[in-house]
């Protein structure tokens, strides 16, 4: 029987996207089957790789070298879905990585349940978006993709609370801001399958941000820290740049992110 950390490393070291998603789903099922017995299964320890394994394609380019296409065209919508597939594949790895990398910190069972569930949802998101690409005659790997998606993970590899602040509470929360506009693009193009896939993603991503906020607040409580002050200082330390409005305040609130967490991070600190 594999420990949860070994399952995480098994996903992280798998290069192929569809195979990574399949392993992630299988391990997720195994985890929840074990949880039915009532005891917390062995979390174990394992050394996650510095970078998750990735397929030969897509070619990874610096964001400024990834060609932009107009969303009003078929090619533009394919490029958009390709970028989403790339984000989802990274998200699969990010959720397994937080489990393995910080396995030495003792956490309640529900913490592992949340990230395993999030990882299985990201695996479904990757599969759904890959299906949409294939239906449109493309596939994940057909276009270049952003390098540097793993940067937030690298920057916070030694800081558990920093990881929660930057990945679910900043990056995934940003997804809540931009997904409605994306859904509109596919609705206008009458691409019902892509609309349906993006609507599932939109609904489930609220949960991922909420897990981040929940466990961030839990750790602040454990260490008697002020959550808002901690959040501001960790985001300023590890996230490169300022947060950019407009924000989806309604969905952020649903996910446990109040406005005074993110609005102050749209501005530089006043100079001394
Ligand atoms: Fe996702
Ligand atoms: Fe997510």
TrEMBL record:
The beginning of the lineage is: Bacteria, Pseudomonadati, Pseudomonadota, Alphaproteobacteria, Rhodobacterales
Q: Where is this region: Disordered?
A: 43-70
User: CDD domains, alphabetically?
Assistant: Ferritin_like
Q: Which domain of life is it from?
A: Bacteria
Any one Pfam family here would be: DUF455
Please report the name of this protein according to its UniProt entry. Ferritin-like domain-containing protein
What the entry lists under InterPro entries is as follows:
DUF455, Ferritin-like_SF, UCP012318
